[in-house]
Write a sequence for this structure.
């Protein structure tokens, strides 16, 4: 059972909407991650946070804006998305970067 | 980042051992081999990891060759619920976990 909790599980949004995906962990982990997964493809790394600071941005478009308000929470703010951004968004955490990474169940996003 | 090569798909009979191979010939000396699996529509699940020695836990065994250029994940008694995509990944020194295409394991009755 995963201890990384993602909300909402499903989200449908229009291209002009602003929405957020939320991720929470209470394992005391200090590294958190966002991945994007399209259908029948492997997960792709988007962002890495280490000690609440953004350490890796894999050239993700600015319409995706991550935020780490504290060590337990990671948000992904969404604005002006395109239909091709529809995917499963996965949050993950690890004790520190380089340690075992644990994933949440993901948030299914549909952009209409 | 060290890349891995896995067969695209494999079949296994229920109750038999499933042996999933992985090549990682460019792995560095301090990089770990990780295995995850992903059952349809769920988040990836951590299975096991290792550096040099063979490892075993309640889910699986990991056999790493002496030169560390390849490894094998063993599910000792596969069940239908083990049907999934299995990813072999080398965790980079930067902490980036980069997924390859993985192996789709189909366990058949």
């Amino acid at each position: 059972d995963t201890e990384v909790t993602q909300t909402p599980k499903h989200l449908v949004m229009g291209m002009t909407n602003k929405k957020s995906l939320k991720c929470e962990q209470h394992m005391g982990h200090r590294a958190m991650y966002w991945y994007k997964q399209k259908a029948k493809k492997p997960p792709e790394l988007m962002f890495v946070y280490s000690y609440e600071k953004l350490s890796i941005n894999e050239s993700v478009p600015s319409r995706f804006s991550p935020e780490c308000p504290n060590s337990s929470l990671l948000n992904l703010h969404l604005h002006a998305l395109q239909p091709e951004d529809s995917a499963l968004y996965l949050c993950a955490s690890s004790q520190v970067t380089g340690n075992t990474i644990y994933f949440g169940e993901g948030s299914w996003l549909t952009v209409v | 980042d060290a890349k891995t090569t896995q067969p695209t798909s494999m079949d296994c009979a229920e109750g038999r051992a499933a042996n999933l191979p992985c090549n990682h010939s460019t792995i560095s000396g301090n990089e770990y081999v990780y295995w995850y699996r992903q059952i349809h529509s769920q988040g990836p699940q951590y299975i096991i990891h290792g550096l040099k020695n063979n490892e075993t836990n309640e889910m699986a065994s990991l056999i790493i060759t002496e030169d560390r250029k390849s490894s094998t994940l063993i599910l000792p008694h596969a069940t239908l619920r083990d049907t999934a995509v299995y990813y072999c990944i080398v965790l980079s020194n930067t902490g980036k976990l980069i997924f390859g295409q993985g192996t789709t394991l189909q366990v058949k009755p």
